[in-house]
Specification:
This protein has 13 helices and 16 strands. By secondary structure, it is an alpha+beta fold. It has one domain. The longest helix has 18 residues. The two termini are 41 Å apart. The structure holds zinc ion.
């Protein structure tokens, strides 16, 4: 079989083109920026955007815990997370629309209610900005020019007046800098961390400052020293998403990508029917605010048991039209496009996690729910399980007692022993990885 080289330029170009062709609804207005993330499928030498999302907002912990109806709002509207939920929706759609066939274009239905993607299929991610958290922390000079020289990034082509030549440090400073104030150094007893520190030092020959993030380290981890320049952050830590006000329960996108590289991007629901994990083959970052070392550290080097390595590319031939800049504020809305047999195009309000046009007090109306919220994805998952007759074969049950409770989100999430074991192993390795309260997942799901 021909070995494909990742055509990251084409992947980025396809996502940017799809965005341009999309309607105005949900896009930033004048004076607003957002992050664009696409998931592109590679199959039979063709590349196709299957999920495209924008968004920068996420709900705080109290908002999530206090939700009137559990499982119906999007807790995390960062574009990476929406695009990934879009991918799950797309795979579910492929399964649901091909259930009566022995095989579909992209799937093989195999024995005992299991489904397998065609082995040649690959998924690639494009993001217009480095994923929040660890991938955004790297040494820079005050003017950042050496960084651009080192990476042969063209400094011209700044055609849309978004001042992208500004040092990213300034941009981060103006956003949400709430860092932990307990000073603590990197724990040098940890091999992983001292390697990371060496990397930082070798890179910091010219650097006198650190690109910063508002993403805070999770409980129990080494804290950011918040000192001058390079002493501001520690690297390699698990962090929650940046944001003002009450802290969120959602982990940074760098951490989520790390998890997807370890346990697959398919999640617990699809693991009930998929024969194999799905991994992202590559990620392309379309921003001059970029550092290869930081990306590899964040996505590939923090978990010693990780087997899959995601390829990382930097693309600067075309800048995302609504990219982050000093003179703009984040767009409060998010959008999602999923192509394929059951395509959807939706816009959400990041501050509520509901569809645009629906107030928080109306969340009891299912029309306000996103097609990719926990309840909706779970009810599609239930449909798949029932149609594949898995509930009759006991194929993926922990034990028979779970059977009557299958219409419960938590039960459905715990069905796949294999996936949950992998997740436990990953969490054990990532010592500070937080666990959410079970009660957040204990709610009923219905067939849609
Ligand atoms: Zn993020």
């Amino acid at each position: 079989m021909k070995k494909m080289v990742t055509d990251y330029k084409k992947i980025a170009g396809l996502c940017l083109k799809k965005y341009k062709e999309s309607p105005r609804q949900g896009k930033p207005q004048t004076g607003q920026w957002t992050v664009l993330v696409g998931i592109v499928m590679e199959f039979e030498d063709k590349l196709e955007v299957i999920s495209l999302a924008t968004g920068t907002k996420c709900l705080s912990g109290p908002e999530r815990i206090g939700a009137k109806i559990p499982g119906v709002v999007l807790n995390d509207c960062h574009a990476e997370v929406l695009a990934r939920r879009g991918l799950i929706y797309w795979i579910q759609g492929e399964i649901l629309s091909n259930l009566n066939q022995d095989a579909s274009k992209y799937l093989n239905f195999i024995t005992e209610g299991k489904v397998k993607l065609k082995p040649e299929i690959k998924f690639h991610m494009y993001s217009s900005f480095p994923p929040c958290g660890d991938a955004t922390i790297f040494p820079i000079t005050k003017d950042q020019n050496h960084l651009q020289d080192e990476q042969s990034i063209p400094v011209e082509n700044n055609t849309n007046g978004t001042e992208n030549n500004e040092p990213p440090l300034k941009k981060f400073k103006q956003s949400n800098d709430n860092v932990e104030d307990t000073p603590n150094k990197i724990d040098k007893t940890e091999n992983k961390e001292s390697d990371i520190e060496k990397t930082l030092l070798s890179e910091s020959r010219y650097a006198n400052d650190l690109n910063r993030t508002g993403a805070k380290c999770v409980e129990g981890s080494v804290k950011d020293p918040a000192g001058e320049g390079l002493e501001y952050h520690v690297v390699g830590q698990v962090r929650t998403k940046p944001g003002r006000g009450d802290r969120t329960l959602s982990l940074s996108c760098s951490d989520k990508i790390l998890k997807w590289n370890n346990v697959g991007i398919q999640g617990s629901l699809l693991s009930n029917v998929l024969e194999e994990n799905i991994y992202l083959t590559s990620i392309t970052i379309g921003s001059t605010c970029f550092n290869m070392e930081a990306c590899h550290r964040a996505f590939n080097k923090r978990c010693s048991t990780q087997k899959h390595t995601i390829q990382v590319f930097n693309y600067n031939e075309e800048e995302f039209v609504d990219c982050k800049s000093d003179d703009k504020v984040p767009c409060p809305d998010s959008s999602l496009l999923v192509t394929g047999a059951q395509s959807i195009r939706e816009t959400y309000v990041g501050g509520t996690g509901l569809r645009q046009g629906w107030a928080k007090k109306r969340m009891d109306n299912p029309k306000s729910w996103s097609s990719i919220c926990q309840r909706k994805l779970a009810s599609r998952s239930l449909q798949i399980l029932e149609k594949l007759n898995i509930n009759k074969t006991d194929n993926c049950y922990n034990n028979k007692e779970t059977n009557p409770n299958i219409k419960n989100y938590k039960t459905l999430k715990l069905l796949s022993n294999e996936y949950n074991n992998q997740k436990q192993k990953f969490k054990k390795e990532m010592k500070t990885w937080p666990s959410k309260s079970d009660s957040l997942y204990n709610f009923p799901i219905e067939n849609s």
